[in-house]
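Help wanted!
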Amino acid sequence: MKYVLMFVETDEYAKELAAMSDDERQAAYEQVTEWFARHAAQITHHGHLRPAHTATTMRLDGAEPLLTDGPFVEGKEVVSGYAELEVSDLDEALAIARSWPACPVIEIRPLT
Amino acid sequence: MDGVHAELTRVLREHAGRLTACLIRTLGDFSAAEDVMQDAVETALRRWPTDGIPDHPDAWLLTTARRRGIDLLRREAGHRAKLARLRWPVPGEPDDRLKLIFTCCHPALPVPAQVALTLRTVCGLTTGQIAAAFLVPEATVGQRITRAKRKITDAGIPYRIPPDAELPERLNQVLAVVYLLFNEGYLTSGGGRPHARDLVDDARWLAESLAWLMPRRPEILGLLALIRLHQARTAARFDDGRLVLLRDQDRGRWDHDAVGEAVRLIERAAAMRRPGPYQLQAAIVACHAEAPTWDDTDWTQILVLYDMLLSMTRTPVVRLHRAIALRYVRGPQAALDELDPLAESLDGHHLYHATRAEFLRDLGRHREARTAGSRALALTGNPAQRVLLTDRLAWT
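Answered by r_m:
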């Protein structure tokens, strides 16, 4: 089955990251690179989104398309990236998600 | 519960889960298999009380499930063909029941759905019986089960026993579901609903099955002992529909053989040298069960056990119970002082206010005791507990 892990950043995590020294931040990035390498056989695709301030949301349920600045949910938790997995079941996807070394929330959803 | 009813429950509990597992293996489809079996169980509950329980109830259930399944699964030709080939007796696999339990108690499902699904799939209850046991509308339970089964299929929740690395955590979740069932059953039992399914029996049966299937897990034995100890006191807990406090119970009416068996379970678990919250809770209840009278209770030992329990699960509820033990070791004032820091987290908990009322009464602060007592009364929905608390208010 295919699953998408949606990585969610929180305010606190962003602050933590900002408070790190360059070396610490470098080490954190390396952990992420290492995670992607370790699960390369299962990860079919992945991407990192630019920060939430670059987002534009379009609503098509009115008479005219409505554009707003920012992500579609206003909140302290924003999707910051994703990885698409090809694994046999949810437990395998959960096991991979469990070892994710960075942002503190992950939504796991199967693809049709 | 009358004889036929009890026998019916026993037979369905024995076979429903096993046959569901067999259907899952045959069809490769958890949801369809579960639906088909549920239909057979409902048919059995309609027919058996008048026709009698057949000589081979599992053959009857399987035949009914097969026939009804071929009707129900009209659009799934593959399923129908597989069902048509199914013959009794079916080979059982010892792991079947565990696979079912672990799938129903998967942490990706909401807890109420885990409970409902376990009862229906593993223990052979109908949706109506589950709704009656939890005092919720049948439609609510039906919806929980439908959603949970859809998630199992669509999200790819596997039907298997978790690998060793995940097993301890997953087993904890299973035990939490069994404990919740037991608690619910324990609180509602004897409440004047003689035909309601006794969830404590289902919890005990699940714990026994787990203990048999996974004999080297001491927490399973601890939970089973805990359930057995509470069951051993059932006869003395109610007097004419009224809840009787531990202190006032007629200890001659306790089932002392059951207490002995539970104590042996605790010892077997302790020999594995991996203590845990269920083993400690069982040990605490055993201290009470083994005291010949209320005055003989070994409160010092109970306090030691609560300290150990607290070091593992530092929850306000455990602290509340520890305070009750402290009351008998160091007196009501020391115990009351322990309660104050819990006010914020346990304000909505009737036992917190009932306990406070008790300590205040012991200290002669009757007006405050009455206030706390009324608060406790307002917070419980359980009829037997309401009667008890009303009685106590009258003489504070």
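OP: Thanks! One thing I noticed: Residues 22-38 of chain A form the longest helix (17 residues).
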